[in-house]
C-alpha cells in the first residue's frame, strides 16, 4: 500500500497557473505565482512557464477559461511538460477534466503542500498525520492517473492507466489504510499527552509564523541547538522542543511547522496535535519576515490560523525578523520650509507599526536573527515575559534570588 504515496521520481518540468479576481492588481498574480514557484522548487520541480487569468471565480469545469486552457495545452505539448500546478484547490471533477484535456499530471495547491510535508516529515507522528491527510485528499480524487498501478509503474510516462475496477480496488485499500493510520495516530497522541505532562511545570514558549520567516534560525540562536534552517518553504514540519535557560530561569521553547495562505484544511486538521505545542504554550513568539513585500498579509494568515486552532488569546511577542534585508531608516532631514514634499511610501518599519496601532499592548521587536546583538535584545524581552509566568507558577521564586 505504501506505493500509493509517491515513491516515483518527481516529474521535472512544470507550469504554474494562478487566478486573480477583479479587485486584485496584476502584481498579485505575480506574487501568487512566485510563492507557488517557491513551493514547487522545494519539491525539486523545474518551472518552465507561468500562466495567470483574471476571473471572478474559478471556472467550474476547468478552473481557467477555455481559451486559457488551450494556451496552456499548446505550451504543455511544445515544452513536453510533466505536471501542471494550480494555485487553488481543484474539485474532483475539475481535476478529471483537466487531466483528460492536458494529459499530464495535475497538481493543486493542497497536493503540492501535502507532498512537501510528506518529504519533510520525520517523526512518526508527523508522517502518520501527513499520510492520513494525503489519503483523505486522494480518496475522492482517484482517477486513472492516480492509481496504484500507474504510480507503481513510475509516474508520468504511462498514460491511460488502470480501469474502473482497479480504481475501486484502490479506493477500498485507501479506506482500510485510513482506518489503520487513524488508530496509529490515536496511540501516538496518547503518548504525546503523557510526555508533555512529564515535562512538569515549566513555562512554555512557542515560535509561530509564516513559512521561511526564520523561526528555526531563532530557535537555534536562542537554544544553541541545531534545527534545520534553510531557504525553502516548510523546512520544519515536525515540532521540536528544547529547554532553554536565560538568567537561571529554565523554560521550554518549541519550533513548529510554518503557516501559509490556503493551507489545506485536511492538513490543519491532522496537524492539530502537533500544534498542541502552540495551543498549550504560555507565550507565543510570532516571527514575521519584514523583508517580504506582503508581510502584513502573512501576519494575518498566521493570526487567523492561531484563531482556528484556538491559540489566539495568549500573550504574543511579535518579532519582525530580517531587518538586515530592508533599507535603513532614513535620517530626519532638515528641509527647506517652502519645498514641496513628495508623499513618500511608508517604510517597512512604519508598515509594521501601523499593523498594531489598534493593539497598543502588543510587544513588538525588530531584529535580525543573524545579528548577535539583536538576539541578546530578543533574549532580554523574552526573559521579562518568561519571568512573569515563572513567578505565577513559582510564587516563591523571587525570594530565593539574591540581588
Ligand atoms: N538575511 C537574513 N536571513 C535570515 C534571517 N533569519 C533567517 N534567515 C534565513 O531565512 C531562511 C529561512 O529560515 P528558517 O529559520 O529555516 O525559517 P523557518 O521559519 O524555520 O522556515 P520553515 O521551517 O520553512 O517554516 C534561511 O535561509 C535563513 O538563513 C535574518 O535575520 N536575515
Ligand atoms: Mg523551520
UniProtKB/TrEMBL annotation:
Domain Hflx-type G: 203-390
Stored PROSITE patterns: G_HFLX
Domain of life (superkingdom): Bacteria
Pfam families with a match to the protein in the record: GTP-bdg_M, GTP-bdg_N, MMR_HSR1
Main subcellular location: cytoplasm
Location in or out of the cell: Cytoplasm
Keywords: Cytoplasm, GTP-binding, Magnesium, Metal-binding, Nucleotide-binding
Function: GTPase that associates with the 50S ribosomal subunit and may have a role during protein synthesis or ribosome biogenesis.
Family: Belongs to the TRAFAC class OBG-HflX-like GTPase superfamily. HflX GTPase family.
Subunit details: Monomer. Associates with the 50S ribosomal subunit.
Name assigned to this protein: GTPase HflX
Amino acid at each position: 500500500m505504501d506505493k500509493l504515496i509517491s515513491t516515483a521520481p518527481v516529474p521535472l518540468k512544470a507550469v504554474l497557473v494562478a487566478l486573480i479576481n477583479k479587485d486584485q492588481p496584476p502584481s498579485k498574480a505575480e506574487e501568487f505565482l512566485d510563492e507557488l514557484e517557491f513551493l514547487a522548487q522545494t519539491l525539486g520541480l523545474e518551472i518552465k512557464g507561468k500562466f495567470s487569468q483574471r476571473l471572478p471565480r474559478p471556472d467550474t469545469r476547468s478552473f481557467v477559461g477555455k481559451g486559457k486552457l488551450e494556451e496552456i495545452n499548446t505550451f504543455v505539448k511544445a515544452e513536453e511538460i510533466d505536471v501542471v500546478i494550480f494555485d487553488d484547490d481543484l474539485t474532483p471533477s475539475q481535476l478529471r477534466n483537466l487531466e483528460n484535456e492536458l494529459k499530464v499530471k495535475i497538481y493543486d495547491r493542497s497536493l503540492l503542500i501535502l507532498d512537501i510535508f510528506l518529504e519533510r516529515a520525520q517523526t512518526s507522528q508527523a508522517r502518520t498525520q501527513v499520510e492520513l491527510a494525503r489519503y483523505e485528499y486522494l480518496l475522492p480524487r482517484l482517477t486513472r492517473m492516480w492509481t496504484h498501478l500507474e504510480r507503481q509503474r513510475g509516474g508520468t510516462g504511462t498514460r491511460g492507466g488502470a480501469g474502473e475496477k482497479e480504481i475501486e480496488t484502490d479506493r477500498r485499500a485507501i479506506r482500510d489504510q485510513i482506518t489503520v493510520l487513524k488508530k496509529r495516530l490515536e496511540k501516538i497522541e496518547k503518548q504525546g499527552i503523557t510526555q508533555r505532562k512529564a515535562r512538569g511545570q515549566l513555562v512554555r514558549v512557542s515560535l509561530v509564523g509564516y513559512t521561511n520567516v526564520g523561526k528555526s534560525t531563532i530557535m537555534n540562536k536562542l537554544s544553541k541547538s541545531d534545527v534545520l534552517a534553510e531557504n525553502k518553504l516548510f523546512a520544519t514540519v515536525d515540532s521540536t522542543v528544547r529547554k532553554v535557560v536565560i538568567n537561571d530561569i529554565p523554560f521550554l521553547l518549541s519550533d513548529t511547522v510554518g503557516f501559509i495562505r490556503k493551507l489545506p484544511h485536511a492538513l490543519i486538521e491532522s496537524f492539530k496535535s502537533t500544534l498542541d505545542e502552540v495551543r498549550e504554550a504560555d507565550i507565543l513568539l510570532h516571527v514575521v519576515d519584514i523583508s517580504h513585500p506582503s508581510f502584513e498579509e502573512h501576519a494575518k494568515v498566521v493570526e487567523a490560523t492561531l484563531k482556528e486552532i484556538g491559540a489566539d488569546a495568549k500573550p504574543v511577542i511579535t518579532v519582525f525578523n530580517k531587518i538586515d534585508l530592508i533599507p535603513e531608516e532614513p535620517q530626519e532631514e532638515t528641509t527647506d520650509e517652502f519645498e514641496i514634499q513628495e508623499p513618500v511610501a511608508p517604510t517597512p518599519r512604519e508598515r509594521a507599526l501601523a499593523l498594531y496601532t489598534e493593539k497598543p499592548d502588543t510587544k513588538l521587536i525588530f531584529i535580525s536573527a543573524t545579528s548577535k546583538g539583536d538576539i541578546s535584545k530578543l533574549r532580554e524581552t523574552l526573559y521579562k515575559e518568561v519571568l512573569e509566568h515563572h513567578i505565577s507558577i513559582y510564587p516563591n521564586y523571587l525570594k530565593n534570588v539574591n540581588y
